[in-house]
Amino acid sequence: MSHILGLTGGIATGKSTASKFFKQEGFPVVDADYGARMVVEPGEPGLAAVKAYFGDDIVFPNGVLDRKKLGGIIFENPSEREKLNELLRQPIRDWLNKEKEKYIAEGHELIIMDVPLLFESKLEDQYDDIMVIYVSETLQLDRLMARDNLNSVDAFKRMTSQMSIERKANMADFVIDNSGSVEETHQQLAAWLGIFGYQPLK
């Protein structure tokens, strides 16, 4: 029977570091960010719903979503951000479930569901366990400013558009501290795999 692990964190806390580790070890990873892009491709119902709500000018003349314009709207307006999440919640859930079922049918022992907004989307009951990749909020702010070349105000706005990393850590089954080096994070993840007897498939 497949074990389904929900992997999440906050913006710039290092979730992608963990996701890449699991991929390198040969475990299937279902990436919700990729799914979110797929459901707003031209011709998909998700894009039609976004266009219907936000207007025709949210889409380029060639029918592709103007992500920069949409991002500008939702980061400045929490109610519009929540509306976007509402519009795309079910299409993304359907995409995630389709990918998960595909890997279950293939007989994989451990399947990683990489979902940045796992708690915000109330998906906790979809997974056997939830792992949060954690750093302190101070370090999170510093890393986000450096990564995206943002000032402290803009970086803080992006952080507060999500549930706080402290709250997520309190809700997790497992917490991985990503405050140190990549190697230290990998060691914690490898130890987790070892404790539960999951053998790398690479």
From TrEMBL:
PROSITE patterns: DPCK
Enzyme class, spelled out: transferase
Biological process according to GO: coenzyme A biosynthetic process
InterPro entries xref list: Depp_CoAkinase, P-loop_NTPase
Example GO molecular function: ATP binding
Key words, A-Z: ATP-binding, Coenzyme A biosynthesis, Cytoplasm, Kinase, Nucleotide-binding, Transferase
Residues reported in the UniProt entry to bind ATP: A12, T13, G14, K15, S16, T17
Pathway: Cofactor biosynthesis; coenzyme A biosynthesis; CoA from (R)-pantothenate: step 5/5
Catalytic activity: 3'-dephospho-CoA + ATP = ADP + CoA + H(+)
Family matches, as CDD domains: DPCK
Official protein name in the record: Dephospho-CoA kinase
Gene assigned in the entry: coaE
